[in-house]
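Changelog excerpt

This revision adds worked examples to the README so contributors can see how folded entries look when concatenated. The first example is reproduced verbatim below.
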Amino acid sequence: MTVTTHMLRRRRFLPLFVTQLLGAFNDNLYKTAMVLFVVYSVYNSESAEGTFSAVASAVFILPFFLLSALAGQLADMRDKARIIRIVKAAEIAIMLVGAAGLLLAWQGLLIQAAAIPLMMLALFAMGVHSTFFGPIKYAILPQHLHEREVLAGTGLVEAGTYIAILFGTILAGWIAVEAAAALVVLTALAGFLVSRHVPPAPAQGAVEPLDFHIVRSSINLVRNTAHDRRVFLAIMAISFFWTIGAVLFIQFPPLAKNVLTASKEVASLFLVIFSIGVAIGSVSVNALLKGTVSARYSPMAVIAMGVFVLAFYFVCRTWVAEADGTLLTVGEFIAHPGAIPLLVSLLGIAVAGGMFVVPLYAFLTTFVPKTQTARTIAANNIVNSGAMVVGSLIATGLSAAGLEIVHHLLLTAAMCLISAWLGLLLLRAERAAAL
């Protein structure tokens, strides 16, 4: 029996894995359904569509920047399983608000006055939900898993996340918006029920007072991670990776509609291919490293990612749009001569990205004391979200300035070079620590 199969059969891992999977599924079903509906049914301007997609991403990410320090403190100072259950109960209420916004938009009622504000409110609240769940899903692994299982567990969580994103994204592109409204509420209920089976994970060190000053606690939290160069560099490299991912996800819907003249189902297909690729990369790098936590393949992986981004850009630049303004169905898109090179490039971006980022998350949970793991993940989330918000603002500014959406891809390729440099510094720090 492999380590992976063994863990999936155990209560110390399976309920957490399923809870995380359902949460990621719901996040992406709701977020994608909302963005696709607004981009394809409300606005009719590439600039407005790009701006809305970027603003939606920033709204979701902002809570990570503001509240991660408090989330990390709670996760290290309180029972992680109890926090999971509280967070999943809150998800039910959040999805009721989001479903109301989707239903109003479906009916064409008060779209600007009520539907979009309700959807954005729920999106922000889901960001808060994910902020408090995020440190736990990785920090709980060293507490429930054996040392040689942590990398495999991290890979499974990451791969499961992207499989969930895959299914959530597929459904968002193919089912009616009113069906999505019902499904997000049902999924939240299922997530809460499964979360009740996660085993207890009490605080492992002295319980310290919580610091509710979000600015001071955030600065202190990030500063405290800098003492281990490997952890600090891993955080910086992950941050640039997720900035790249954020910019790509912002681009996909308006790029599919305006550059490739393709339907929302094709936009959904892009997100699906990306999710499949990251899942493949997540599992593959674990097999290559054989359970050893190392950044050995990270610099090469992100360089490959940048090359695939450039390939994706050049295919988009040579794409011949439909003359009559009609949108290609999935079948018509696949039949287009540029479709296969485009999808292969996109898959390459995602596989390389998964291979780059998974070992870096394992650095955050294996090279710090178990009493500090949640706060280390929280510090990572603060830096990640800050970088992603900056990326979203840059994308918003470029769209507002009238720069064609396809040219935004060059920004993501440039960021891959920075990530590769950080990955190389991390590899050198890893080798220096081993001497």
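The second example, added in the same revision:
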Amino acid sequence: MDPEMPLLTLDDLGVLRDVEVRGDGSVLVTITPTYSGCPAMATIRDDIEHKLRDNGYTSIEIATSLTPAWSTDWISDEGRCKLRDTGYSVPGPAPARTPGPVPLTLTVKPRELECPQCGSSHTRLTSEFGATLCKAQYRCDDCLEPFDHVKEI
């Protein structure tokens, strides 16, 4: 499970890239962090290793792949349903990645979101930073409920 959003598996989140069981019984697991420097990666690595050891594997290699970079587009349909069902605002399509310099902007592009509680589009950003780097905090102006939005990456 993802340590920051334990309703999702690493596969739901798209962090688990590949699992290869080799002929000699060893296992190679490839993962991609949601953010470079993601603080949950150490816990994710430990959890994977413990699960594999609990299931009898003794020779385990966990590789981190940084390319291509993770995107919220990799969240599975099932993962998106789990997020929605537990009150998260689901990310829209990730912004297009273009080669070359990335422009520095000091403001956040406005997002058009629906409240996961009542479906209203009358929502407003209360903080671009939530409990984790991948979430922003919003509030619905109709039902007044606060909610987390998983940021598009």
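Reviewer comment on example two: The CA atoms of residues 28 and 61 lie 5 Å apart. Residues 41-54 form the longest helix (14 residues).
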